[in-house]
Known about the structure:
The protein is of the alpha/beta class.
Amino acid sequence: MKIDILTLFPNMFDGVFQESIIKRAIEEKKVEINLINFRDYTEDPHNKVDDTPFGGGAGMVLTCQPIFDCVESIRTEDSVVVLLTPDGEVYNQQMANDFCLKKHLILICGHYEGFDERIRSLCDREVSIGDYVLTGGEVPAMVLVDSITRLLPGVITEESHQNDSFQENLLDYPTYTKPRDFRGMEVPEVLISGDHQRIANWRREESLKKTQARRPDLLSK
Ligand code: ADE
């Protein structure tokens, strides 16, 4: 899979893509990630990418020309263009599962006070990572890249994501490791029983109980 990220702040991504699982996925060519500064596409003599809003109001608005030219120069018929914006569809595991099957994602990070409304016409999807406002689309783009990359074949073991929280609209069951007793807090007996059927049943029940208690909205889906 190829992911192109259109941003004015490519350096913000350094740490996230240079550590751990994403770093390995890039090195092993499971994913190709390109950071594209759309300022490089501006035709403005002063390199501007934003301007004041028509009708007045605070702040600067990203202009159409650099983003249109950039997207049009990289998009193919395999591309899915995604705009990160707080008024998009709220991101979830199902969307990550869908995106991980695509060949080419183009993620557009908005910034400043907003972007010209006509930029939406370039996009196939608009995605928000939650009901709060961030300074720009960079952190949301990192969230998408992380959640999608871990689902790509061979990046982590198949078993790891079968058990993920949300994979069946259920939260994850509790897990424990050594020691069996830590400061009087003991590992549930069933997990030491060696009885695989009992363990599977227990995990399923714990998932259901936790989902019922914390996220009953998931069970009604
Ligand atoms: N840009 C600013 N806030 C955002 C959010 N919550 N989701 C996606 N993009 C954003």
